[in-house]
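Newbie here. two chains, one complex. Structure please?
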Amino acid sequence: MPRLLSTALSLRRDPRLLRIPPYVSAFCIAIGVVWLLLLPLDDYSRRTYVSENALLPGQVHTYFGGSEQHIFRAFRHEVDLLADKNNYEVNDKLESILTGFGVKVGRQNYTYHSAGQIYTGENVYGILQAPRGDATEAIVLVAAWKSIDEQLNRNGIALVLTLARYFKRWSLWSKDIILLLPPDSTTGTQAWVDAYHDAHDFKHIAPLPLKSGALQGAIAIDYPHEQRYHELHIIYDGTNGQLPNLDLINSIVNIAGGQMGIETTVQQMTGHTDSYQDRLQTMLRGMLYQGLGYPTGPHSSFIPYHVDAITLQPTGEGWHDEMAMGRVVEGSFRSLNNLLEHLHQSFFFYLLMQKNRFVSIGTYLPSAMLLAANFTIMAIFLWVKSGQPTAKDVGTGKQQSDGLERKGDAAPSSWSPLTVERNLLSPLTFVAICHSISAIPLFLFNHLGINTLPLAFLIFSVTSTVLPAIFSFAAASLQKPTPQYFQLTKSFSLLILGVSLATLSTLNFSLAFLVGLLASPLTFIRPTDSAATRWFFAALLILTSPPIVILSTAWTSGVTLTEVLKAASLGWNVWGMYTPIIIWCMWWPAWLIGMTNTLSPISNI
Amino acid sequence: MTLQSKVGVFAGAALLRLILFAAFPSLPDLLTGRVEISTPVTSFKRLQEGLFLYNHNVWPYDGGVFHQAPLLLPLFSLLPDVKTWPIFTAVLYILVDLLSAYALLIIADSGEAGQSKLYTSPRRAKRSSGLLVAAAFLFNPYTLATCIGRSTSVFTNCAILFAIAKALSGSPFNAMVAISFASYLSMYPILLLPPLVLLAYDRQSEKRRIGSVIQFSVKTVLIASACISVLLAMSFALTGNSWDFLARTYGIQLTLSDLTPNVGLWWYFFIEIFDSFRAFFLAVFWLHLVIYVGGLSIRLRTQPLAVLTILLGIFAVFKPYPSIADTSLFLAMLALYRHLYPIMRYTYVASATMLYATFLGPAFYHLWIYAGSGNANFFYAITLVWSLAQSLFVSDLTFAVLRDEWEVERPEMVGKEIRQI
């Protein structure tokens, strides 16, 4: 063992060893990407299974149907009559309908301000008290007046009203059922859930007059679809990339597919053929939504409060009708009603690649961790390198020692444990400055009004491109930058980036992966004296800079810049979405430092 | 180092803290609630509970929430209510931090780290200025978080630093009084007494010199015990003439009956352990904590300040309720050993590990407590990493101190790599 150790220690001194880390970093990135591409294969993904025994999905006979269809049509007629009314008139009517069944009704006003716009409305909700429960637990049925695509959720509202009337007649509920009818799919549920957990902003959001017990699960119905449908689209992404327990999705897939014969799909992948391409596409779409952290439906607001929730959206043309949808909801509610404790058995971190195939965190996390590790490896390497005497310092001494080594003399005597003194102050100051000015874009883009946002963004993009040149000029005029200075700034910057990405990958894997991938050129850039290389690096960095990436993403997905900025601001102000922090306070400063280092003139390295 | 720059650093640190207190009114309460900052024996929130009971003439330890020294209660009841006038509490904590930094300034300027009475380091020329050490302490994010989080361990830290500073400036009596206060507040500083007595013995003023170590130790230990007895007697009178407060303050630390998570290694272990083994392992854990004192004091007899620094590092890892306040104290003392940095081997790895743990700790705690998608193992794993980083610092410092000594004994080995044979 001591012999082995000393061999390892003597290896440490080998100059060849210091050339390895950049290749290790590149290797980490490559493996990370390949790893992700392997996931859809059968050997790496698993079939889903229901692990909570209490759920018993599809084991009960569902009775919704028959004459309920007439009632459904009647309610749909009522909804049609209300189509042009304002929020309060709609809620008056809905309240009278719900009280008609003997359901207790509450209403809640809310106002949100974002990007100079006001989002205001009134939620109406009813609590159907459980005949066999003690109001300590509740499940929520949501139907927003306006669907995700801003259409009238005509069938959804009617279905919830019919189901409410139908559920009220059953004596088997052991959990309260809350019927929530917010005016829209975005802000209303958030205000309601915040107020339900007393975490709302007291100035702008009213408290709830009525409450029940701890929420165990929520199902939202998004059903503006007019024809008979072919399949159920399950939307499951929550705010900030949090996901509901996989058991909830499994149960619904099981109930819809096994009991009703309705196809289910995820991530808008209609006609999934279970091929590699389809699986990969599903997974990548899921990662994109998760990475954006933007809420995808009325269910999204529930998930941060550890309430498992999904939205059901009928799509396609087929032969299933509203009653089948009602039976799916009935079956799911019967399953949720069986729960003895909060859903906890199954996975919270997963990537779905088909309604019944997934990979769990243990399998996919290494890819994001490898990307984060590449930055840390490079940071450690640069630190070691910055402590080494430069070629000039040891030039003469080295030749002599080389001669000695060739004669087979004792190698350790030529080794010097002493490292060069590192000047830490100026690199640390520079890194700290870059990170502190990142508060400016964060503040600007979340507080400016909608009219000034696009202009501010363009000005910021130009400034962000010019700033590195100014910084490098200023640094060069203040003191002559040494190679050590560049190594240390890059080392600290990459260390921070690596640490933040590793942390982020445990919270929001997809965001960490995407940012890590886009920031990966930062590992390899360095100041050089070759003009061609420098301009190549500069061009590469500009292409992967945060503003350019945002602009090009908006352009390729056909959304205007204004909409992107408005949505980002809304996400920050309403849902507490932290994606802007990641982009402006973690990625952008790292990019700024990398770009400054690229542009800096360098004499010797 | 001019007076001006000193005033600048201190004023800057005070201003930064004031701005943090004033500009983010919800920050203090947020930090107070963090388990990394507030432990059951230092939490400001629990102190408020004790204070409320005390002000309403109820025995403060009723309710089983408050576990801190009784004399803190009259001190804090003198201040205006923290809800209406938070600024007074803030100013008190800022002053205590500044006092600690001042003590560090004295310690650094004494040059004890490089040159003690019995040992002179060949590297002592490259020492860090006192101002830099004080600034490193004042602007350390851990110190800032502790101050804003109003953990009562700042009082203990301040008393420990003053005990060391007074021992260095040749006033053993004041040093003993200070360490008695520290021990009274947190109990564990009593373990610092042996190296502190040695330090005070080495740095006695020539006028009142006591030649014999034994005579000097007996005298100082008597002073310390007298002082602690007075403090305990005052507490006895304060808590309605009963000794029950001992079980509720020091007893909690000895038996670890409050298992609130913290950054240390004890809580998870004692949650998992079967009750029949609990007493045995409590004894083992405490013995482990105590055992370093004698060994280090004897081995590093020539450098008592190094013993104190290493011990503070060990306590920050292995004591029953550690928090980042203890780490900030250890890091402040570590800054004194600037001359040993070149022979420390793992500073970057240890700092990077610490940085990782600092980021991942709150994230995993969030996953466990709020998101519900993680569990206690996540957080405990990170506290292990955190402890690993600190023990890397401790062992690296110990290595550097010993190597420095060794190079004095074996001058021919200077600059050569050592190998285990």
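Moderator note: The CA atoms of residues 193 and 305 of chain A lie 8 Å apart. Chain A is about 55% helix and 15% strand. Thread marked as resolved.
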